[in-house]
Each structure stands twice: as C-alpha cells, then as structure tokens.
Design a protein that fits this description.
Blueprint (H helix, E strand, L loop, with lengths): L15 E3 L10 H12 L4 H9 L2 H11 L11 H12 L4 E8 H11 L4 E5 L8 H10 L5 E4 L5 H6 L2 E5 L3 H10 L2 E5 L5 H8 L13 H5 L6 H28 L1 H5 L8 H4 L4 H21 L3 H16 L7 H21 L5 H28 L15 H24 L1 H4 L10 H18 L7 H7 L1 H17 L7
Parallel strand pairs: 1-2, 1-4, 2-3, 4-5, 5-6
Helix pairs in contact: 1-3, 2-3, 11-14, 11-15, 11-16, 14-15, 15-16, 16-17, 17-18, 17-20, 18-20, 20-22, 21-22
Length: 485
C-alpha cells in the first residue's frame, strides 16, 4: 500500500493512528452488532456461527450488513476526542486504524470529521495486531504513533515510533511503559465491578419483598420455616430479575443512548462491557434458578423469567399490554411467595394486587409520557405511547388505584374474613393506607416528580415509608400480634 502524504504545515509531527473499540469509544461495535442481530432474530445465531467459521473479518462484514451504528450517540472517550481535534488543528495527520468493519468505522469517521484516512477490516482481512502494524508501516514508512488500549496492540506499538495508551489495564500499561516510547497516557476511568453493581439494579430488589406478603397476610409471622422459605424465594427472584435487567439494557443500548437520563446506564455509557454483562446475566440466572429449586418454586420462577424476557423483547412495545403484563408480574411475586411459604395467596389478595399494581405500572408510563411532552413531545422509543396519552393513562391509573382500595374495603365487609382477626376494626387502616399511597404516587406523577419506578420511589420516600408502616401496624393490631403458629 502506498504511503499517505503528510500535511505540509506540520510535517515534523509523526502521523497519529487511533484504534476505535476501547480507545476512541468505550465499547466494542462488533459485539454490540452481534447482540442487535440476535435480539432482532434469535435464529440468526446459526448464520452467525457459519460466518465465524469463515473468519472474523467475514463475520464482521456480515454483521455490519444487518445492523446500523448510531455514531452520534456512541460513548466516546471525550478526552481522546478533544485531544485528537487539538492535534489535527496543529496540523498532525490523524487516521483511524481499527479491526472494526468498514461500514461501522466510516460512520464514526463521518460523524467526528477528524480523520484523514480510515483503515479497517474489509471482509477478508481482520485488521488487528500484526496485520494492523503491517498496514500502518506500509502507509507511513517514516514512522507513526499509535493509540491503543489492549494487549493485542503491543504488536502494533512494536512497529510504531511512539505509543499512546488509552484506558488500558495496569498490566498492559506497565508493559507498554517498559518497552515503548510513551507519548501520552489516558488513565483508565472505567470500574467494571462498580458498573456491574449498578447494572443489576439492586434498588429494584425492593419489589421482591412481595414474596413475604402472603405469609404476613396469613399471620405466619412466627413461622421460622416460612421466613426462611420467603427469604430464599426473595433471592431467587432478585437474582433472576437482575439477569433480565442486564438483558433488557443490552437490548436497549441504542434507545438508552438517545434518552436524556437512561444514556447514563452502564451499557449505554460504555462503563460496562456488554460481553461481561451477558456473562454475568447467565451466571445470575443460573443462581436464581438454583435457589428457586430450594424454595420449591422452580416452575413459577421459570414462568417469571419467560414472561419478563418476552416483555423485554416484544410486549413492552405494545401499548396497554405492557402495563397489564407488569401488573401480572407483580402479582406473580405474591403467588410465588404463597407457594414458597405454604400460605397461599387468597383471591382477595390477588384481586387487590392486580388493581394496585396496574395503577403503579401506569404511574411509570405517565411519568415517561409527561417527561416526553416537556421535551417537545413525540413517541416513546420502543414503547407504544406518545406524549398525547398522558391524560387518558392518568385516568386509567387513578381509577385502578382507587379500585384496589375498594377491594380491601369489600374484604373487610365479609364477616368470614373479619372473624380471622382478634381486632378486625383496625383493618380499616389498610384501605386508608392504600388510598394515601395511591394518591401520593399520582400527585407526584402529575407534578412531574416521579422520576423512578414507583416501588423504587417509595423505597426512598419518607412519606411512603410512613404510610406503609401505618398499614403494617393496622394488620398487626388487628391480629393482636398473635394468631401465628
């Protein structure tokens, strides 16, 4: 390959070649492309296997044919981008040298507008390590500087006149510092363990305390076996749910990057590698299913896993279906808790939960459509709603919430149910607490102050804690703090 002519106004500066994945951007476009391909059509896994058998360069080219790159919203390392622009302004020749396929790399190059040339994989040659070094040496026989981030870049630095180390591990940085002339170092900022801890959304585990509800409603407070079983069921659901959260965020990477707040999620922001996230998802799912066997709720856990996965890839896009599914998933937690503890959920409890959690699911959608309206309106990405739906969704949600309180009130009117409690009059605190909680959620939503999932909001909200405590005290007083065995 012929050498590239250096810019005449600063010929003494060696040209700078920059890697893409992990260096210029905080992600791997090939792996993201694979995820997009499989999420769109899982059966393409067989085609992917066939492509890989023909080599990584071929597989990269085929994946690039079926997927697109939203270059404007990729998680760029802004330190590197700013530095490249300043070097180019000084007259330095800047090139992009990456093992990524041509289509993806050129999208990035066109967006940034900072590169004089682009060297990429081409469907036949996977431009990595030795091949990249050879290509750059042929293009710049008078020498070049290379910016990279991983152990595979060591072989490129051997042919380079200087090295720029970006986001490298301590081991790679040490090797590069020992063997090569370092022009600049951009220290690693990413903490994958911390990012993974955020991505599994431990705050969402608060939803799984619902497995304790049947035991509490059945006055099984003094049963050690019930508490133990509920605890195991709690962790089975929490770990399984975290696996689905990782899967959901991996599927929503592009949509999240265009969202004003979700763009800070670990996958979207490039703080967590999708490859590491998918490995963690499989491990969490396996652990959750294992615990479900101990709690004798394997089939319900598998049902929950299947429903949440179906919701992630299909049902969340269908207006109204999504909120009914969410309400059903909340109710499934209660059913699962009843099976695990031996205190089956009553029809009254299930009826209450269906209305109450439908209201909460609608709160979340109203918060999203209202926020969208503030930002100028339009349609929610990967949802079946627009900013114009806020009013009707609010009406549905308020009615559903008040219906849940009505179910509790009708339950108390039944003499058979009241007879199960020593002081049944105290039970009237339950519908009162329900009404207060529903009213608070919807007031916050109408003011645009419901920024989290309602359950997560309640876990952080002092007033909500007080209302829930009122309901729990009403139940305990009605039972006379006894009746469990």
């Amino acid at each position: 390959m012929s050498a590239i002519q250096l810019k005449s106004n600063n010929a003494e500066a060696l040209p700078l070649a920059v890697d893409l994945d992990g260096t210029l951007i905080r992600t791997d476009l090939f792996f993201e492309g694979i995820l997009k391909l499989l999420f769109a059509s899982p059966l393409r896994v067989f085609a992917l296997a066939a492509w890989l058998l023909r080599g990584r360069a071929h597989a990269k080219a085929r994946v690039a044919e079926f997927t697109t790159v939203d270059a404007a919203h990729l998680p760029y390392d802004e330190r590197v981008v700013v530095w490249l622009r300043s070097e180019r302004d000084r007259g330095r020749t800047i090139v992009l040298a990456t093992a990524t396929d041509r289509r993806m790399a050129e999208s990035v190059s066109e967006h940034l507008g900072v590169f004089d040339a682009v060297f990429t994989s081409d469907g036949v040659t996977n431009l990595k390590s030795m091949r990249k070094a050879q290509r750059l040496a042929e293009a710049f026989p008078n020498g070049f500087v290379y910016a990279g981030n991983e152990a595979a870049d060591i072989k490129v630095w051997r042919r380079a006149a200087g090295a720029v180390v970006v986001n490298a591990s301590s081991g790679t940085l040490a090797r590069a510092s020992e063997k090569f002339a370092i022009e600049r170092v951009f220290p690693r900022q990413r903490n994958p363990i911390g990012a993974l801890a955020r991505a599994v959304r431990p705050q969402q585990w608060a939803k799984n305390v619902l497995v304790f509800v049947p035991m509490m409603a059945g006055q099984g407070w003094m049963s050690f076996e019930a508490w133990t079983a509920a605890g195991i069921a709690f962790w089975a659901l929490s770990l399984t749910a975290s696996a689905v959260y990782l899967l959901n965020d991996a599927a929503d990477i592009d949509a999240d990057r265009r969202h004003p707040t979700k763009r800070n999620r670990p996958f979207a922001a490039g703080a967590l590698s999708p490859a590491l996230g998918m490995a963690a998802a499989m491990a969490l799912a396996a652990a959750g299913i294992g615990l479900s066997v101990l709690a004798n709720v394997l089939w319900l856990t598998l049902l929950y896993l299947a429903a949440t996965t179906l919701y992630t890839f299909a049902l969340k896009k269908i207006a109204l279906t999504d909120v009914f599914v969410l309400a059903g998933l909340y109710t499934t937690r209660i059913v699962l808790g009843g099976v695990a503890t031996g205190f089956p959920a009553s029809d009254w409890l299930l009826a209450f939960s269906c209305f109450f959690f439908l209201s909460l699911a609608l709160v979340k959608r109203v918060a999203e459509t209202r926020d969208l309206a503030v930002r100028g309106g339009g349609a929610l990405t990967r949802r079946g709603y627009t900013s114009d739906d806020t009013q009707i969704l609010t009406s549905m949600g308020v009615v559903a919430g008040f219906m849940s309180a009505l179910v509790l009130a009708l339950y108390l009117q039944d003499d058979t149910n009241a007879a199960r409690y020593l002081w049944p009059a105290f039970l009237w605190g339950l519908p009162a607490a329900c009404l207060m909680l529903v009213a608070r959620f919807w007031l916050k939503a109408s003011r645009g102050e419901m920024h989290d999932d309602p359950i997560v909001f309640a876990a952080k909200d002092g007033w909500s804690w007080g209302i829930v405590t009122l309901g729990a005290m009403s139940l305990a007083l009605a039972a006379g703090f006894a009746g469990a065995s």
